[in-house]
Design a protein that fits this description.
The complex is a heterodimer of chains A (556) and B (207).
Chain A: H1 2-10, E1 15-16, H2 28-47, E2 48-56, E3 68-71, E4 74-84, E5 91-98, E6 110-114, E7 117-119, E8 122-124, H3 128-131, E9 134-138, E10 148-150, E11 164-171, E12 182-185, E13 188-198, E14 205-212, E15 224-227, E16 232-236, E17 239-243, H4 247-252, E18 255-258, E19 274-278, H5 281-285, E20 293-299, E21 311-314, E22 317-327, E23 338-344, H6 351-362, H7 370-378, E24 381-389, E25 394-401, E26 417-419, H8 425-442, H9 445-491, H10 497-525, H11 529-532
Parallel strand pairs in A: 2-10, 3-9, 11-19, 12-18, 15-19, 20-26, 21-25
Antiparallel strand pairs in A: 2-5, 3-4, 4-5, 6-9, 7-8, 11-14, 12-13, 13-14, 15-18, 16-17, 20-23, 21-22, 22-23, 24-25
Chain B: E1 12-14, E2 21-23, E3 30-31, H1 46-66, E4 70-74, E5 77-81, H2 83-92, H3 96-126, H4 132-145, H5 151-162, E6 169-173, H6 175-193, H7 197-200, H8 203-206
Antiparallel strand pairs in B: 1-2, 4-5, 4-6
The chains are: A alpha/beta (556), B mainly alpha (207).
Chain lengths: 556, 207
């Protein structure tokens, strides 16, 4: 090994210096890495909120790991997994909520999938067309924790905590309304339909509407709601009227409300107050109907044209409608009378009804007011089926007083009350026309015609005779008459001697009259002239005007 | 003793930087008289440093895979991808070739490095004489392929810089890529701190 040492000796020696770093310091690197990893884990653990599961009918648009859960468009969680439910009827989306969104895992939180929706009422969720669907959330007030949710299929029209009030509307059917249908007040949208459901007995629909603050104050205890859908075309005495709300409402339906005209209670309604939803504005604004009463009528005539829902009018006031038209059989008379059932609202008669009721009460009448009705029937109250529309022949029931109506027995105890009937005007006319036709048929038109024919032949013969023999005679007579008239004409001509003579005679007569007047005047002035004769100086001709000319008379 | 003498047998030590051969003075903190860099018979604390870096790299490799590395926004559709989900997406969407490349660069290579370095460290620490040549080759392979793992990081960096079309298309880096980059860098450092001569310092040398 000596050679080796020699080589080594020739080589330079390294410089010895103080150590710079401790080798073990390198272990700081994995420690830092571990710390970073640990911090990530802790961070993730701290950030992790509750995991909930929401069930939907379909997983359309739900993408595990991507679909966010948003509240007011802020992401509060994410769908982590989507799977089918046990019975495969629904899908269950597992959602990992963020720590800050812990309050969303409570009992009354609602979840729904926001997808693009295009309806008549508008377009919503259009942003999700590109970004994909997301789950919307609406938190309630409950603090009770919950992890299993049933998602809504449609977005709730009313978010929790929105200022405003909810009201219930009862209707016979839903019409064209839907969740989200607008609610109008004076044609301004102030709310929307939030839910609807069938009544428990299935005889109607209850709609829940939400009216936003501050317009909820306009809903008063006496407000009337009506279905503002569609176009209301009415042909009245004042012409054709088309009444609509906005175009969207015409197509998609809506609810409108307003206070009735006239004095009414205007206190704002309480939350969840219930109202009736009328079919149109006119019915809504009409005074309340009050309690309905069922009456029955028996008609001994054909009631072709009388349909269910035909109006029943009392002295021209519509106060009810026909609910049933049924045929009956009368054994005694072997006829088929028609039984008409009708629902009437006596309260629609207004003041008359009030007075009648008061009167009936004071007389101790029963609930059905049978005595009162009996009295009215005695005075001639009868129901008639009248033609309301000559074109279509639609009938309506009119209740009128017919003083000439034959007396009938009225059973006040019958339930329902049966109102006696009278044949309608048109029936009467028909009967009368039939009578006339019968009489006309009795007229012996055949023999009349024959006689007329004979008479005419006779007349013809007579006329021929007249033409042949009478007319030439007449001609001669007329000629004679013409000659006579010509003679008379010449006699009366101005230059005729007769005329001249007549003129001369008349002049003489005039002169004679004048002389006579002069004489009488003179005699008036000088009566003595009768005895003494005319005085010499008197001039008979000059005296007529002279008042004081006592002259001699000229008369012999 | 049929093996050739090692430098340490001859009392010599070579400088790692400039290659100068000095006498081994058995001092703890010797430095090269020519370039001034530290002199070691073997890379200083090679085992512990490599182990430390390897462990750190492995620790960083966990978030690198769990956390998403890239967010692609295309026409409002936001998509966060981890390394593995990106590979799956590439495969599913009809680019299996690209998927294989990314899988190799991002999953196979780092994992291979962890295994290779661990194997080298354990076998060298034990002084095993098993397949010494092959282990040397393995080490060179690890050194060679190490930086290819940076592919993913580069892809994310490039896309982020290039694809910025606002609403229509956008790429954003996410924290995962930082951890992945750290993993790659630290594994490279680990393979650098490992002294391949340790492979040959078999137990027979002590015997």
């Amino acid at each position: 090994m000596t050679d080796d040492n020699k080589i080594t000796d020739d080589l330079p020696e390294p410089v010895v210096r103080r150590p710079r770093v401790n080798a073990s310091i390198v272990w700081l690197v994995p420690i830092i890495a571990a710390l970073v990893g640990l911090s990530l884990v802790i961070h993730a653990w701290l950030e992790a909120g509750p995991t909930i599961s929401i069930s939907f009918l379909s997983a359309e648009g739900l993408d595990p790991g991507k679909t966010p859960v948003k509240y007011k468009n802020v992401t509060i969680g994410r769908v982590t997994a989507v799977r089918l439910s046990e019975d495969r009827s629904r899908i269950i989306a597992k959602v990992a909520l963020e720590k800050s969104a812990q309050g969303f895992a409570t009992a009354d939180t609602r979840y729904w999938v926001v997808r693009p929706r295009i309806g008549l009422g508008g377009v919503s969720g259009i942003d999700t067309l590109l970004s994909g669907a997301f789950i919307g959330a609406d938190v309630g007030e409950s603090s009770e924790p919950k992890s299993e949710f049933t998602g809504l299929e449609n977005p709730p029209p009313v978010t929790h905590g929105a200022p405003g009030k909810t009201f219930d509307l009862h209707s016979d059917d839903l019409g064209s309304l839907d969740i989200g249908s607008p609610v109008y007040y004076r044609r301004i949208q102030v709310g929307r339909v939030s839910t609807y459901h069938l009544d428990k007995d299935g005889k109607g629909v209850t709609l829940q509407i939400f009216v936003d603050a501050p317009n909820d104050q306009f809903v008063t205890t006496s407000s009337r709601f009506w279905n503002a859908s569609g176009v209301d075309v009415s042909l009245g005495a004042d012409g054709l009227k088309v009444n609509t709300q906005s175009l969207a409402t015409v197509l998609a339906g809506g609810v409108a409300f307003q206070d009735p005209p006239g004095p009414h209670d205007a206190t704002p309604a309480q939350e969840d107050a219930a109202y009736r939803l009328f079919n149109d504005r006119a019915t809504a604004m009409a005074p309340p109907d009050g309690e309905p009463k069922y009456i029955r009528m028996r008609f001994n005539q054909s009631l072709r044209g009388l349909a269910v829902d035909a109006p029943v009018e009392f002295l021209g006031v519509p106060f009810g409608r026909v609910v049933s038209v049924n045929l009956d059989f009368d054994e005694k008379t072997q006829t088929f009378p028609t039984i008409v059932g009708a629902v009437v609202y006596p309260a629609r008669l207004g003041k008359a009804h009030d007075k009648l009721v008061a009167l009936a009460r004071s007389r101790g009448d029963d609930e059905q007011m049978s005595q009162m009705m009996g009295r009215l029937v005695e005075h001639g109250l009868r129901a008639q089926a009248r033609t309301g529309n000559l074109l279509t022949g639609q009938l309506y029931i009119a209740m009128d007083f017919l003083p000439k109506a034959p007396k009938v027995a009225f059973d006040g105890t019958a339930k329902p009350l049966e109102i006696p009937t009278a044949p309608g005007d048109l029936d009467k006319i028909q009967q009368q026309i039939a009578d006339i036709v019968g009489k006309l048929q009795k007229v012996p038109f055949d023999s009349i015609g024959k006689n007329l024919d004979q008479s005419l032949a006779e007349l013809n013969r007579t006329l021929k005779q007249v033409n042949g023999s009478v007319l030439p005679e007449v001609k001669n007579t007329l000629k004679g008459a013409q000659q006579t008239l010509g003679t008379a004409n010449s006699a009366f001509a101005p230059d005729a001697p007769l005329q001249q003579n007549l003129g001369g005679t008349l002049q003489e007569l005039q002169r004679a009259a004048r002389s006579l007047r002069v004489l009488t005047d003179y005699l008036g002035d000088h009566p003595d002239a009768l005895l003494r004769g005319r005085r010499a100086d008197d001039k008979l001709q000059q005296t007529p005007p002279a008042p004081a000319a006592p002259t001699q008379g000229s008369k012999p | 003793m049929n093996t050739l003498p090692r430098a340490s047998d001859l009392g010599l030590v070579g400088c790692h930087v400039c290659g100068m051969v000095c006498r081994d003075v058995e001092a703890d903190h010797a430095a090269c008289p020519r370039c001034g860099s530290s002199l070691h018979k073997r890379k200083a604390a090679s085992y512990s440093r490599t182990w430390a870096l390897l462990v750190a790299a492995f620790l960083f490799y966990i978030p690198a895979n769990v956390l998403p590395i890239m967010r692609t926004v295309s026409v409002g559709d936001v998509d966060d991808n981890t390394i593995l989900s990106g590979i799956i997406e590439l495969w599913v969407k009809g680019s299996p070739d690209l998927a294989i490349i990314v899988f190799t660069a991002s999953i196979v290579v780092p994992v291979l490095k962890f295994f290779a370095l661990s194997l080298l460290l354990i076998s060298a620490q034990r002084g095993s004489q098993w397949a010494q040549r092959q282990r040397s080759k393995l080490y060179r392979l690890v050194e060679f392929i190490g930086y290819w793992s940076m592919l993913d990081v580069f892809v994310v960096a490039l896309l982020t810089a290039l694809v910025q079309f606002g609403f229509f298309s956008q790429v954003e880096p996410l924290p995962g890529v930082v951890y992945f980059g750290l993993t790659v860098v630290i594994t490279m450092l680990a393979s650098m701190t490992f002294d391949p001569r340790l492979i040959w310092d078999g137990r027979d040398f002590d015997d």
